[in-house]
From TrEMBL:
<keyword id="KW-0813">Transport</keyword>
<dbReference type="InterPro" id="IPR001638">
    <property type="entry name" value="Solute-binding_3/MltF_N"/>
</dbReference>
<feature type="domain" description="Solute-binding protein family 3/N-terminal">
    <location>
        <begin position="59"/>
        <end position="288"/>
    </location>
</feature>
<feature type="compositionally biased region" description="Low complexity">
    <location>
        <begin position="25"/>
        <end position="42"/>
    </location>
</feature>
<dbReference type="InterPro" id="IPR018313">
    <property type="entry name" value="SBP_3_CS"/>
</dbReference>
<feature type="region of interest" description="Disordered">
    <location>
        <begin position="25"/>
        <end position="45"/>
    </location>
</feature>
<protein>
    <submittedName>
        <fullName>Amino acid ABC transporter substrate-binding protein</fullName>
    </submittedName>
</protein>
<feature type="signal peptide">
    <location>
        <begin position="1"/>
        <end position="23"/>
    </location>
</feature>
<dbReference type="Pfam" id="PF00497">
    <property type="entry name" value="SBP_bac_3"/>
</dbReference>
<dbReference type="GO" id="GO:0006865">
    <property type="term" value="P:amino acid transport"/>
</dbReference>
<comment type="similarity">
    <text>Belongs to the bacterial solute-binding protein 3 family.</text>
</comment>
<dbReference type="InterPro" id="IPR051455">
    <property type="entry name" value="Bact_solute-bind_prot3"/>
</dbReference>
<keyword id="KW-0732">Signal</keyword>
Length: 366
């Protein structure tokens, strides 16, 4: 009993000491230690298998339309010309320093994507619309928009139409296997209108059907309609109706899984747009290398900074693009603009800084 009583006294005594003892004081926070600024780890771009293959073979393999006036067509001497063709040449100038090191492979609407996936071409530059399903579902990447387009309708002036909604019950010519065919069905279904599709596998065959009056109207991207009209026997007897029934952002397509190559194609397009913003063109860019003083122009021309190596390219890659192919406005003008039979207005394809602003806007090169 005595030892139990002694133990109880000790416990009571300890409890009393615990209640009466001041709380332990928290340690004073130490003053923050100044740290020297860290230098970002140097970055080396992933080796692009496509770029490596292009350099080994000595040319860019580019998929183009078999013959679309203004965009891709062989001239009387067999030389490929057009807006999409110039995008291919710009890529060759950027990666090989020579815009002529391109081989063109014609692709139709049905095999254009398989040609890219199978490695028969390095880039597809063929009036191809950027859509969700194509971007996310085909194993492909759309690098940039080179031409903002939309689907419309071509009809004889003699019908005196003012809107596509007046085409209820009409026969409409459209190319099979294209987004134009789907857009046409959605346009008429949404308005509760009837129509009869007259389909053919190629744009040339669709145009021939229209010219033979096998249909009342022809639907496609407006740029393609302008191209088709320019080849007809009586182009002035045809009118493009004011309706634009879809968004069709067109641009070059590459395979997924090679991000450095995607960046090269993307920034080649942006280089043409930036050149126009900076007031550069094929005739003035060489002199600009001697006189340019503002930092952005000097970076663009490869006189300052080390931007080219981030893409695995030389520092003067953008300079070569403009010197050999031109700025965006030059490519547009001779391909589809006022210096071409199509004579398309810049419209949405004007610079964002133009008096009539368009959508052409490139990220800064810095």
């Amino acid at each position: 009993m005595i030892w139990r009583l002694a133990a109880a006294i000790v416990v009571i005594g300890l409890a009393g000491c615990s209640r009466g003892a001041p709380a332990a004081k928290a340690p004073e926070p130490s003053a923050p230690v100044a740290q020297a600024p860290t230098t970002p780890t140097a970055y080396s771009p992933a080796v692009s298998p496509t770029l490596k293959a292009v350099r080994q073979r000595g040319y860019v393999a580019c998929g183009v339309h078999p013959g679309l006036p203004g965009f891709a067509f062989p001239d009387a001497r067999g030389r490929w010309r057009g807006f999409d063709v110039d995008i291919c040449r710009a890529i060759a100038a950027a990666v090989l320093g020579d815009a002529e090191k391109v081989r063109f492979t014609t692709t139709d609407a049905q095999d254009r994507f398989s040609a890219l996936r199978d490695g028969r071409i390095d880039v597809l530059s063929r009036n191809t619309s950027w859509t969700f399903a194509r971007d996310a579902g085909l194993g492909l990447d759309f690098a940039a928009v080179t031409y903002f387009d939309g689907q419309g309708f071509l009809a004889p002036k003699s019908l005196q139409l003012t809107s596509a909604e007046e085409l209820s019950g009409a026969r409409i010519c459209v190319q099979s296997g294209t987004s134009s065919e789907e857009n046409l069905a959605e346009f008429f279904r949404a308005r509760g209108l009837r129509y009869r599709a007259v389909v053919a596998p190629t744009e040339d065959e669709v145009r021939q059907l229209y010219e033979s009056q096998a249909c009342d109207a022809f639907t496609a991207d407006i740029s393609a309609l302008a191209a088709a009209r320019s080849t007809m026997g009586s182009p002035n007897a045809q009118v493009i109706l004011p309706d634009v029934i879809s968004k069709e952002p067109l641009g070059p397509v590459v395979r997924q899984g090679d991000p450095t190559w995607t960046d090269i194609v993307r920034w080649t397009v942006y280089a043409t747009i930036l050149a126009e913003e900076l007031g550069l063109n094929a005739k003035t860019v060489e002199q600009a290398r001697e006189t340019a003083s503002d930092p952005e122009t000097r970076r663009f021309l490869g006189l300052e900074g080390e931007l080219g190596p981030l893409l695995g390219l030389s520092n003067d890659w953008a300079y070569q693009v403009v010197r050999q192919v031109g700025a965006y406005h030059e490519i547009f003008q001779r391909g589809v603009g006022q210096d071409s039979p199509l004579k398309l207005e810049r419209g949405l394809n004007a610079l964002w800084t133009a008096p009539k602003p368009g959508l052409m806007y490139a990220p800064p090169m810095r």
